[in-house]
Amino acid sequence: xxxxxxxxxxxxxxxxxxxxxxxxxxxxxxxxxxxxxxxxxxxxxxxxxxxxxxxxxxxxxxxxxxxxxxxxxxxxxxxxxxxxxxxxxxxxxxxxxxxxxxxxxxxxxxxxxxxxxxxxxxxxxxxxxxxxxxxxxxxxxxxxxxxxxxxxxxxxxxxxxxxxxxxxxxxxxxxxxxxxxxxxxxxxxxxxxxxxxxxxxxxxxxxxxxxxxxxxxxxxxxxxxxxxxxxxxxxxxxxxxxxxxxxxxxxxxxxxxxxxxxxxxxxxxxxxxxxxxxxxxxxxxxxxxxxxxxxxxxxxxxxxxxxxxxxxxxxxxxxxxxxxxxxxxxxxxxxxxxxxxxxxxxxxxxxxxxxxxxxxxxxxxxxxxxxxxxxxxxxxxxxxxxxxxxxxxxxxxxxxxxxxxxxxxxxxxxxxxxxxxxxxxxxxxxxxxxxxxxxxxxxxxxxxxxxxxxxxxxxxxxxxxxxxxxxxx
Amino acid sequence: xxxxxxxxxxxxxxxxxxxxxxxxxxxxxxxxxxxxxxxxxxxxxxxxxxxxxxxxxxxxxxxxxxxxxxxxxxxxxxxxxxxxxxxxxxxxxxxxxxxxxxxxxxxxxxxxxxxxxxxxxxxxxxxxxxxxxxxxxxxxxxxxxxxxxxxxxxxxxxxxxxxxxxxxxxxxxxxxxxxxxxxxxxxxxxxxxxxxxxxxxxxxxxxxxxxxxxxxxxxxxxxxxxxxxxxxxxxxxxxxxxxxxxxxxxxxxxxxxxxxxxxxxxxxxxxxxxxxxxxxxxxxxxxxxxxxxxxxxxxxxxxxxxxxxxxxxxxxxxxxxxxxxxxxxxxxxxxxxxxxxxxxxxxxxxxxxxxxxxxxxxxxxxxxxxxxxxxxxxxxxxxxxxxxxxxxxxxxxxxx
Lengths: 473, 400
Hints:
Chain A is built from 16 helices and 18 strands. Chain A has 4 domains: 3-89, Uridine Diphospho-n-acetylenolpyruvylglucosamine Reductase, domain 2 (2-Layer Sandwich), CATH 3.30.43; 96-214, Uridine Diphospho-n-acetylenolpyruvylglucosamine Reductase, domain 3 (2-Layer Sandwich); 217-327, Alpha-Beta Plaits (2-Layer Sandwich); 333-473, Alpha-Beta Plaits, CATH 3.30.70. Chain A is of the alpha+beta class. Residues 462-473 of chain A have low confidence and may be disordered. In chain A, helix 1 (3-13) runs antiparallel to helix 3 and helix 13 (348-362) packs antiparallel against helix 14. With 400 residues, chain B is of the alpha/beta class. Chain B folds into 4 domains: 3-76, no CATH class; 82-135, no CATH class; 145-277, Rossmann fold (3-Layer(aba) Sandwich); 291-398, Rossmann fold. Chain B is 53% helix and 8% strand. Chain B is built from 24 helices and 9 strands. Chain B has helices spanning 7-12, 19-30, 38-46, 52-56, 63-76, 82-91, 95-110, 113-120, 122-126, 128-135, 170-174, 176-188, 204-208, 212-226, 239-245, 248-251, 259-267, 272-277, 298-303, 308-315, 338-341, 343-360, 370-382, 392-398; strands at residues 152-153, 161-166, 191-194, 233-236, 269-271, 291-294, 321-323, 364-367, 388-391. In chain B, the strands form 2 sheets. Chain B has a 5-stranded mixed β-sheet with strand order 1-3-2-4-5. In chain B, strands 7-6-8-9 form a 4-stranded parallel β-sheet, sandwiched between helices. The mean pLDDT of chain B is 86.
């Protein structure tokens, strides 16, 4: 990117909202995904839709890439700058524009922090359930772009279940408005749902309309200790087949328990092989009934002890502890690589065994935790990015895990997105026709490949795609 | 996890002004990818070093040490400002100079000079930075605490504890009554309080701002002076001083001569609330009428991890109305001499703190650090509230 292009960018956003300093380029060169980084050519903080639109038009004209970014908490490299790219940072678009209690909706800018939105709507007795582990930092825009999940996905679903409308600047600079406050809307293609999870490759989201639901009035949080990992997995299967849907059902293995306890000091059982953190919520007496049935099923599956949170503070501590799992695992080794392979729930015990098998086979250390109720686990490889040999082994282990997940009818990513980290495996799960369709859509909407290029898949001449198999990194 | 715990990130929404961004910069400088630049120096000093990010970090990254090491590096490259180096090298390390400066400030305020200068705005015309600092100039008490605290202070009755007391430099000069209350309270619970006359500044302000040489000199002087006495614990009522004295062991770990002495010194340092929380207390003589709230000093909660102790101690007072403060663990903007170096940011943080305190409806805010006390007192005056600012110890002492 030459200086005259930079001058044009500066003219669009203003000097104050532009930087190409060495320091800013460095700090914006990565998101939360280990091993991926690339310096952007410049960073901008646009002030309004018009500026975003003009930036994109300029990108088409001058042939540079545009990469959108929120808080940079993504775990698939989705917000890592591309080559010759302008990074568009949306963190200052952080206003909640409207909470409509009559229609149960919230209209927000994309830079609103997920946890902050939850706090605001809960003051009104409303509830926005999607709760990724990084909810106190991540933005709604990033959540929508990646269709983020979270701990409560089991009962309440994921981000896409709550997006009613999206406004987005398209790759030609036009403003798309899709969806609205209607609970039913079947006019034409469902563009809104298509945008959710598009990882910034189809446009830059500027406004989001979210669905809210009434806040559950009561909840019970249980922590169950197990001496065997398999018993915990069986207890999960038992609860699901008893037709109880807890609002969360999370598991942590021994390594994760000890790291989290090191950080939180809340008395987690460091001697146990696994714990399940279970919450049931709702209204009235049914909550207690469900909790009682769950306790019974836990005991039946050799649970050694069940601790019930005595109050909201205790319950919040337990959930915060669970959310810290990924970062806490970094206590053991300098680099923690987290993945999110997902399988049908019934296959969870098998999948956990496969992760252990991968650890043995490739001689690497895994901490394992995740959303047991969703079949969505987070095998986290504890390694050191400076040790190239060990990193190679980690990649082989993950390749093994992904392939096993696919064999079990699962997928390579449940909630983090494909980004850079998993694009080489996409064909295995989407199939060649699926991948080709995705590429054709991308090319039709963004013919110059301006928006977040290289994420989800690499656009290459067709013959090359057909002949190459995924490289081993 | 650290981003939203960081006051400067919250104000700017800039990755470069976040803990994660600063660590990236520090790493890049260490690896030789980035030279020490103006922006680097600015970012390292723009950081409050409040260490809220350390509390938020599940991975246990010791950010404070990294930024303090980076400040040493930028000092070496000559990025120190005049105000900073004047405060840190010329005044604070020398008890008598600090006292002399305070006396001058006292005269300045009492002689009517201050009124004249403020009403004419003459200072902002010629020295805008000095005018900003002048605004913070607090009232100076008539007597400093080292003039009335004896070297040995005996309790009225039976001796249960032998304690040493570090009276600090800011606390000594600006808030001597807190030191008086501390000694009085410790005497009441049966402690002999030893306060060496030749003790010096703990060195924390220097260490936190990249001047390790002065910090080590001051620390070794303290190790020597306190070493002349027998005591169980060394009590501090200034969060920043307590935190740094607990780090002497680490500071001298490679020093053959002082390593062991320093480690022993640090092991016995306790914040006053930490000591009270594990001590049998006599009965309380009166019930507080006023409602109170508590602000966590960064160097207590984030550096020393003291959160529940002051609350437990206060909750011992029968009938106390302790109202929880929203974001009580967020920096008030004082941050050592930060308010003098980054006045704008400091004031934004102070305003937020004052708004939160106001919402509690409390008449008194309690805290455990002189910097916070002066900053919040300034806030109470600026935003025109009747709020009283008291040290936890003073409040406690009034009711015991």
